[in-house]
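hi! just following up on the protien thing from before. the input was this:
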Amino acid sequence: MSHGFSLTDDSWLRLPPAAGGPAQEYSLRTALLEAHEFGDLVVELPTQRPAVFRQVLLAVVLDALGRPSDEREWMNWFSTRRWSGEQRGKLEAYLDTHRGLFDLFDPVQPFGQVAGLCTAKGETKNAGLIVATAATGNNVPLFASRTEGDTFSLSPAQAAHWLLHTQCWDTAAIKTGAVGDPKAKAGKTVGNPTGPLGQMGVALLVGTTLFETLLLNLPVGAPPTSADLPQWRRREPDDPRSAGTPQWQERAPEGLLDLWTWQSRRIRLFPETTDEGLRVTRVLVAAGDRMPHTPETEPHTMWRVEPTGSRSTGRSKGGTTSPRRPLRLQPGKAAWRGLDALLAPERQSREAGEKTSGFATSKLLDQAGALAPDLGEAYPLRVELSGVAYGNQSAVIDDVMFDALPLPLAALEADSDVRSALLEVAEQAEQLATAVNHLSADLRRALGSEPIPWDRGQRPGEFVLHALDPLVRRLLAGMREVEDLERIEAGQLAWEQLAWRRSWEVADRLLQTVPVGAFVGRSVSQGEGKPERTHRVSLAEASFLKRRAQILHRADAHRRNCPTPDNR
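and the predicted 3d structure came back as:
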């Protein structure tokens, strides 16, 4: 029985109205043509969002319309807040021309898959294999509500999302060996890296409508070359770069379209008709194209770069110097704690001849900073950061990371007061966490214990950062409409006053739990010929209060000028 599900005309993208309201499913055609009427894309897992944008939405826009050649042309596109009549006509014509290439279950050219992909023995696997949140194989808990043998059923819309997600974020190591893969041995292919997005932290820019989000993630530049094609237009069997055969290559992307629609796996979905309708219950995932390294044309990641004038330490597998590496996200670390990387406008620093700081922001954030005067300082830009932390040999997913930040456009300007203020705030938060960790260490020494190791257990400084998190986010949103230095200083003073209280609340909880013996203290030898060092509660508290006053110097000066009964 033949099955059909057209991504072009069948509903599979969940989108809410731009004015607010419940999300509904729409087709690719409706989502793109009426992009100005929709809000942010709704997905099951945050890491699906960049996968859908890169593998489908952005790639269709770029292939159908090209891209603005410079910031002035980009602003002309953006200023209308919707597609022009000519652009809308080109999109419609493109979707009509290539409609057959977007059929998820086409028997000859299924979207994002290889028709007829199979193993020598005809094995398939549970559809849960492509669902990042589903435990499979040996990872299924012993007393879980389901077993590896239970059917995992996906609707066509769900299967499309997880198909795209697998191409971007799949785990590494051994994959099933497919018939026609000359590098498969004993029914398997080894040495597979993770999906391309798994090797970096992804920064997706979000506007007020889907249309604005699409343009914010469209870098300016020359139009795609004739060799740079999306995967659905690379299906000829005699093309060595074909995505429609079991054979794969290790190569660099030809351009943005090739990069965004990179087929890191050869996949086949097996649909069947059930009582619930058309469902995907079995899949086959085999080795796909391998990217030797993340190209510098990648627009959706921040970079770790060698600071100007330093000795290069990063080297690639071939031993050649690699001064630029994608920046990965760290589990449990809020996005604002990485503002030094987010707010590192490389273009302006390079033009001014300044030294690089060791980080470079993404090309799209750099572009947004250059467009700030035209967009307006109050534009409500949001940055969504997502990433995956892999486990043993990158063969399992340990954690999925996601965070979203309101980001003032003024902060993307290298010499702006807003940028300096926000970087200072982030540094102050880290310093307060360190001060509380030192307080904890001193209190433990007063009891004759060793401090908590930095790589074990939960240190109390994390509670400080957790308490400061909503304050930093509120400040980021508030700085959008601030321009003059006086208001920036007032915002920093308000932040420091709140941080003063929050940090003391955490420190006070530590002091309240200290046994009486710690007030007497302990003397510790510093070595021969050196005086003993005494650790007691009063000294630890005084040291913390002094350090806090140094960190939050504005709040300290304000309290000295306007003293209160409780000077804590």
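The radius of gyration is 27 Å.
The CA atoms of residues 29 and 92 lie 7 Å apart.
cheers
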